[in-house]
Amino acid sequence: MTWILFLIQMAVTVVVGCYFWSQLKKERQAQPGLRREASREMEHLRKMRTVHLSEPLSEHVRPQSFEDIIGQQEGIKSLQAILCGANPQHVIIYGPPGIGKTCAARLVLEYAKHSPGTPFKENAPFIEMDATCVRFDERSIADPLFGSVHDPIYQGAGSLGVQGVPQPKPGAVTKAHGGVLFLDEIGELHPIQMNKLLKVLEDRCVHFESAYYNPDDSAVPRHIHDIFKNGLPADFRLIGATTRNPEDLPPALRSRCMEVFFRALEPSEVAQIADGAAKRAGYQMLPDIGALCGRYAACGRDAVNMVQMAAGLAQMEQRTRITQADMEWVITSGHYPARPDQRAAQENRVGAVHGLAVFGSHQGAVMEIEAVTMPGSGHVTVRGIVDEEEMGNSAHCMKRRSTARVSADNVETVLRMQGYLPADRDVHVNFPGGAPVDGPSAGVAMAVAAVSALTGRPVDGGCALTGEISVQGQIKPVGGVPEKVEAARRAGLIRAYVPRENMQERFEDCGIDVRAIDTLAQALERVLLPAALSETETEKQPARIAPLAAQGTGGEASCNG
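The structure assignment produced for this chain is given below.
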């Protein structure tokens, strides 16, 4: 019996040995082929790495210092104040595309590394991701932002996976540990990812879970035990950039972040970017051509693209000079719309007032308001404003009269109470331009235009007004006043009248005379000129206008300009 068992064991041993010998032989025979295939692929990869196209002009002109970022001095100063101290904060940057948000964030981190008391080390990383491209798997198989766990059941689990050990993989939040995580278009981040991000910002680490993790398994390496117990470190500062409005972002995110606004570039600033791009590309371009580019390019990126296309035309004809015809062809080919002229007419006219508004990405603008009178029944009609607006969310939404319409009604009430609106005359107020006006800030300007039309007294064409008007004739504070004042300055106006509660010390050195008003009576006294003062007389007697506009200025802050 013993001999039979011995023979069976020998037979099994021989069979198993033959099997493994056969497998080893096949593997050895396959190795030369695998090596040859790997060698060919490696050679192909080396050849691919030797091929380089020329650097795009947009990368060639990318700002390398704060001085290279045009028009964002205020935004950069805000970023430095937030990130370059001993206690840097999370921040969200608002602004239109192509104005330097990403470059500013990168340069501010480099500046912060050398600031006194900064927690950022010399090797602090700057990890950049686009929130629109952060794709993730709800099963946590793959998540480039927060990281994931490579469970042993998935392909490529490696030697640890063979032993049944789950392996955490770090994401961008861990790679940014000790530095900055820059999330472009953060407003497009998926709600699930947004909630995870808020948790990471609070905990300063990211935790992982896996059904395959056993804390008592001795085969699991010590570092993996530590990761599942304490999480991966994720102590970074978040810089989120977005082209959305602040109200479009989750309040929970905004409450954890400081907010900085990068403004849209002015045509002259876009022209400066175009001139610099032409020089770096090695082409000559007259300043007038840069100004033409500034009239049509909406941002710095557009300007660089237009210059690159114009340079391509010049290169085709073997020229080193970009001509006006080249730029005009680019504008026509790309269907670039012209930006409106920001200069404001300063003639003293009856029933014509400069109002101030804010639109888009917190951009100030000067808008014309005109008024005429006609026989009627003592009513004020306003055209060019929003009549109704919605408030609330999808779950509870209601319609109401717009604040602009309410402001127009207040104007009619005030004019009637103060005796300016006769029972046999109507006033027609209009906002030219086609775009509907919303908000109450044009109330005082509408009232001034109406009184000018009713009394025949011209309005000082060198000034602009903003402010909400109450039914008692009081001027109430409004939003966006700094942007509105800057718009008046750019338009070439001399004075801007704003509600007293909106006055700021910064207006003392803003390049335009900013004055506070409390009531409609004050506004009329300072803005309306005598009815007998014609345009010709106005030009001959500038000293007569100045005292009129300066009456009753006690306690006002004004600027030299």
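Interim note for the steering committee: The first helix runs from residue 2 to 49. The chain is about 40% helix and 15% strand.
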